[in-house]
Amino acid sequence: MGKISGAVSTYANVDPQIEAIACQKLGLQPDTASTQVVSRDRHAEYVEQLVQK
Question: H-type helices in the chain, by residue range?
Answer without folding.
Answer: 16-26, 40-52
